[in-house]
């Protein structure tokens, strides 16, 4: 526990000032986080880091994250998909169609999540802090309420410690914290829409956590990485954010 707290303090002291400042330091931070996240997935799959598919995937990720105009990012993904599929033929299926599918899914999971991170920060610092507070409240509420009142398992095969009561408690805590945040620093166009969005995002945040747990269970690893002592890897810390940020960015565009 002491190691987790020390790591969290150090990480927050580095992460938050960059997020607040924005601009090119934030862009570099996002590139680093996304690169490490993709690396963690490739390592889970036991694909060589220096193989053609890995090199292509990293290049596509870096090109995709850059804030282009006119949907060039989508074409980067399409080109990457075509190259990976062509390589299945060149390698005579040593690199299989399933492997190509994994790489594309990984690119979408990491790339779209961190691209949305950039776009949400561009929309305003209030939205970033909203997402961070929402995830923190959901995780904390699910943990403490689950420990105190949890009886029914949420998804025992994937994450044995999570309970239905904890999941509901996480949503309720997110609503409470977000309401206080909106009261102290109003940013939403409608309080009712904010509450509806919070319920949806809190649920998706918990689903993102379950998806990451499913990845690790499928590939037989305890943590996605070891870059954050006591916490695991980048994906272990950003699993919920990677799920809610694209949805939050969509809400921002619609509203």
Can you offer a commentary on this structure?
This protein is mainly α and 255 residues long. It has one domain. 78% of the residues lie in helices and 3% in strands. The chain has nine helices and two strands. The protein has helices spanning 2-21, 23-45, 52-65, 72-90, 97-123, 125-149, 164-184, 191-219, 234-254; strands at 153-155, 159-163. It has a two-stranded antiparallel sheet. Strand 1 and strand 2 form a beta hairpin. 35% of the residues are buried. The mean pLDDT is 89.
In short:
It catalyses: a 1,2-diacyl-sn-glycero-3-phosphate + CTP + H(+) = a CDP-1,2-diacyl-sn-glycerol + diphosphate. The chain is mainly α.
Describe the secondary-structure layout:
Layout: H1 2-21, H2 23-45, H3 52-65, H4 72-90, H5 97-123, H6 125-149, E1 153-155, E2 159-163, H7 164-184, H8 191-219, H9 234-254
Helix pairs in contact: 1-2, 2-3, 2-5, 3-4, 3-5, 4-5, 5-6, 5-9, 6-7, 6-8, 6-9, 7-8, 8-9
Number of helices: 9
Q: What's the helix-strand series?
A: HHHHHHEEHHH
Taking the alpha carbons of the first and last residues, their distance comes to 41 Å
Main beta sheet strand tally, sense and closure: 2 strands, antiparallel
Kindly provide the radius of gyration, computed on alpha-carbon positions and rounded to a whole number of angstroms: 19 Å
**Silhouette:** globular
Query: What helical percentage do the residues reach?
Result: over 70%
Secondary-structure-based class equals: mainly alpha
- Low-confidence stretches are none
Number of strand segments: 2
